[in-house]
Amino acid sequence: MAKVIMIQGTMSGAGKSFLVAGLCRIMKQDGYRVAPFKSQNMALNSFITEEGLEMGRAQVMQAEAAGIKPMVCMNPILLKPTNHTGSQVIVNGEVHRDMSARDYFAYKKQLIPDIKKAFRKLEEYADIIVIEGAGSPAEINLRENDIVNMGMAEMVDAPVLLVGDIDRGGVFAQLLGTLMLLSEEEKKRVKGLIINKFRGDKTILDPGIVMLEEKGQVPVAGVVPYMELALEDEDSLTERFDKKEESCIDIAVIRYPRISNFTDFNIFEQMKEVSVRYVTSVSELHQPDMVILPGSKNTIGDLKWMRQNGLEAAVKKIAEETPVFGICGGYQMLGEQIADPSGVEGGGALRGMELLPVVTELGEEKVRCQMEGKLPELDGIFSNLSELEFAGYEIHMGKTDFSESGKEIEIRNDALHEKKIIISGRNKNVYGTYVHGIFDKGCIATAVVQALAKKKGIWIGEGAFEDYRSFKEKQYDKLADTLREYLNMEEIYGMLRESRLE
């Protein structure tokens, strides 16, 4: 059996995902075969594996930190919210069905065999498995059917590190209150406490730590400082949406209610000359150098939202002079029509933004695959992307084809990979693609920024750009170095050695 340790939090956003990634990196550096695991993840940012299976991107990030390829067994259950009370339930990488929150709560224990099977498969690879919980184990209304916090810890006999976020305030109440609400058996599993996101002089905190250990009867395994890291975080609590500063090259991403896979734009955030702003209103849009329409879990609903709040009209006006780039659901919105004959998003048909000569028909079957190749010959501002190599993946429920008005483009660009790659619109400023991660490989993002700078009449030197993969590796190493300094790794390795003794 693999050795296991589990990170649980006092709340969502306590820092569990980064701590799991950091521990994975440390243990990889120490020569172990280590892998992340999260039995159930709720997220709209997802990834497609080599096998064409869908999983949460948080576990992809953690797998990168561990130096291994992402496997769907790292995240056997993925919930993708479709509205405030329901989600698409994905099991072992494939769509199971849409369920209301109440129905899923009653059903989810039936998925325990799938969780155990996925975990056993991961054990065939890993010496150590670092498990992430979700939300808080003290959500007593969810305890009965728990499969992701203490229920998961019991399933695999895992010791638990409980993490609290001091940056939000009340960390002692968070940790002690959580311990008080656990059953005696659950509390015995908690082998250490971690105070996360600390800013300031730790000596001021020391008296509180002494009292915390006295009242909680659990040792504090570390006080981790607040870290500025450019890594993927949980999509529902990301701080990326709050950034409003405009840099030399300003990219505005439309943040509709069901935005998904906004990780497509992380590569631009590490470029010092570029700002990525997420906008929800016309007043926030300003005059960006590029507008991006990202993926959506409800394309028709989010297009209606843009139409109602005026963003659609604003983007169409901007497109006369400024490049607009749509990805997946955003690509569908830019077309002439979105039809939903199967009722995937409620049925009917909706006029698109009419910026691309394409039409989309939504279907019940989800397209899931990885893609790589060369971009076709492109017109307009991004003609410098022509023939560049790309790699990425598709996740969408719909097929897009050229409309009657797009036949000329179809004839000219006859290698468009079933209309899934980029085409430029009639005014040469509008582009669309189904490929997530389209900017990540090689120099594509660099070429985009250089084209925007040239249009603006400025020059950005090569020193502003860094290979994205190398950049992320440095971030994982920075995370690991910080955790080594501030966590009691000897104590944590001791917990691992004591776990699952036969």
Structure characterization notes:
The chain has two domains: 3-231 and 472-498, P-loop containing nucleotide triphosphate hydrolases (Rossmann fold); 249-459, Rossmann fold, CATH 3.40.50. It has 17 helices and 26 strands. The chain is globular and about 70 Å long. It has 502 residues and is α/β, with parallel strands linked by helices. A six-stranded parallel beta sheet has the order 2-9-1-10-11-12, with helices on both faces. The protein has a six-stranded mixed beta sheet with strand order 15-13-16-18-26-25. Strand 19 (337-340) and strand 20 (348-351) form a beta hairpin.
Structural class: alpha/beta
CATH structural class of the largest domain: Alpha Beta
* CATH-level-4 superfamily name of the largest domain: P-loop containing nucleotide triphosphate hydrolases
Q: Beta-sheet strand percentage?
A: 25-35%
Biggest sheet: strands side by side, in what order? 2-9-1-10-11-12
- In total, the number of strands is 26
Protein name: Cobyric acid synthase
GO biological process, one term: cobalamin biosynthetic process
Pfam family, one: CbiA
Organism: Variimorphobacter saccharofermentans
